[in-house]
Amino acid sequence: MSKQEVKEDGYKDLYVSPDKIYPRQVNGLFAKLRIFTVFLLLGCFYVSPWLLWNDQQAVLFDLPARQFRYFGVTFWPQDFIYLTLLLIIAAVGLFLFTTIAGRLWCGYACPQTVWTETFLWLEELVEGNRNKRIKLDKSPWNLNKITRKSTKHFLWISYALFTGYTFVGYFSPIRELGQGIIELTLGPWEWFWVLFYSLATYGNAGWLREQVCLHMCPYARFQSSMFDKDTLIISYDQQRGESRGKRKKQSDYKLQGLGDCIDCNQCVHVCPTGIDIRDGLQYECIACAACIDVCDNVMDKMGYDKGLIKYTTEVEEKSQGKEKTKFFRPRTVYYISIFLAVVSAFIYLLSNRIPLDINVLRDRNNLYSENFSGEIENTYTLKILNMSQQTENYRLTVNGFEQMQLIGDSEFEIASGEVLTLPVRLKIPGSLLSKRSSEIEFIIQATGERQYTASSVAKFLGPNIK
After folding, report:
1. 3-state secondary structure of 328
2. What is the number of domains present in the chain?
3. What is the CATH number of the domain that holds 417?
4. pLDDT digits (tens, 9 = 90+) for 66-125
5. What is the pLDDT of residues 278-319, one digit of tens each?
6. Letter string b/e over residues 227-253, b meaning 16 or more CB atoms within 10 A of that residue's CB
7. Alpha-carbon distance 360 to 246, whole Å?
8. 308 with 261, same domain?
9. Which segments in the chain show pLDDT lower than 50?
10. Claim to verify: residue 386 and residue 309 sit in the same structural domain
11. Which domain holds residue 280?
12. What is the pLDDT of residue 381?
């Protein structure tokens, strides 16, 4: 511990700061998979805001304009149903994924894991491998230590600032944002969020690291409710590995009462949260499989079989492989059914989405009027929103009565993202009205290359029919 538990005056510290963890890099199948995942996710994050679609930023959460652009599709507040379905898909997908594969999300795809891995690479680039980093931290301050520490934090801060800039670039056009940073013309909120997210990245990935997983992330606390005996976990084979002990490579260790574990502690040295997987399944384990890679490497060098530490399930572990893991079980079938149902609903609604919204408002001050010819007239105000990414031409028609007369513009043009306020009047011969209130339908049809329609039902009011 970095602080004494008992002070000289006999009092105990209520808080003892944890020792710093120096995870060692490891080579292996899962390490390569983790590196691939890190590059893939970071590549998507840093590249996406720079992509263009129809000369516009392809991915942009334009909060002032209240729209979200995603590769040619514009979502508006009226499309809240799609966000709701996406959140449900993410939640059910998390439950399903965790029930089947355990904490693979934490070990490979969690932003905290991804950015921490990147910061560790930068640290190793400047300060060297695990042993060199430990030695450097224990050494007194000198020119070499100051230079290496300063260089490391310079790289961390630069990378964090670029991350903060990219993050805000999803909400403010990234090219204009970059120009504003260079010219120092950004608004106060843009400066705030760039610096805030940069500081969060620098603090979480550079300083807090595993502390976020151990003490701040709620996922580790409630994940056990999604686990069952067929959930994938990382486990140490105690029956094969115990008793632990040092030995020479060619020695007959079984005569000495030893298992396959040579007690090298490499599984502890590579663990990003600093746990010993040999103590059993622990909530601190993020299932990154670094211990599997390093243990397999040690087993290779010793000439033993691999798999002393491996991905397995409780049912296979307890039965020593005699029982097989069941993929289809009541919990997974339930999650898969809900997941497929919600995904199907999302795809159906999205494929049938019409980028046009119409809202009809009646004139409440004058329910209706009647002229000398016996015609009944109602007045309406139409609010028409063009939800596409280009200017469109539209045609207005009304259904309900054969001899209905539309007074007002029936053909018009609306720019992308604009709302047209269109006042119209409808006239109907009074003899056609059989009741005081009748339904009519306003239909807006796009007349451009992509033809689609949107409609809204309204009431046409007249005098009491005796």
Report:
1. coil
2. 2
3. 2.60.40.10
4. 899 999 888 998 899 999 999 999 999 999 999 999 999 999 999 999 999 999 999 999
5. 999 898 999 999 999 999 999 999 999 999 999 999 999 988
6. bbebbbbbbbbeeebeebeeeeeeeeb
7. 82
8. yes
9. 1-4
10. no
11. 228-322
12. 96
DSSP for residue 94: H
Check residue 305 and give its pLDDT: 96
Residue 12: per-residue pLDDT: 58
Looking at 273, 303, 322, the residue that finishes a domain is 322
List the alpha helices (DSSP H) in 270-329: 290-302, 314-318
Do the domain assignments include residue 411?
Answer: yes
Instruction: Please identify, among 322, 347, 377, the residue that sits at the C-terminal boundary of a domain.
Output: 322
* DSSP 3-state of 397: strand
Helix/strand/coil (H/E/C) assignment for every residue in 3-47: CCCECCCCCECCCCCCCCCCCCCCCCHHHHHHHHHHHHHHHHHHH
With respect to residue 252, please indicate whether it lies within any of the assigned structural domains: yes
Q: Same structural domain for residues 287 and 380?
A: no
Q: Are residues 368 and 443 in the same domain?
A: yes
Q: Is residue 388 part of a domain?
A: yes
15 domain residue, yes or no: no
> CA 194, CA 177: separation in Å to the nearest integer?
10
Distances (CA, A) of 395 to 331, 398, 425, 445: 52, 10, 16, 5
Q: At 238, which amino acid appears?
A: Q
**pTM of the entire structure?**
0.87
As given in the structure block, the two tokens for residue 430 are: 């009074």
Task: Please state the φ and ψ torsions of residue 416, each to the nearest 5 degrees.
Answer: -60, 130
What is the reported pLDDT for 5? 52
pLDDT of residue 11: 60
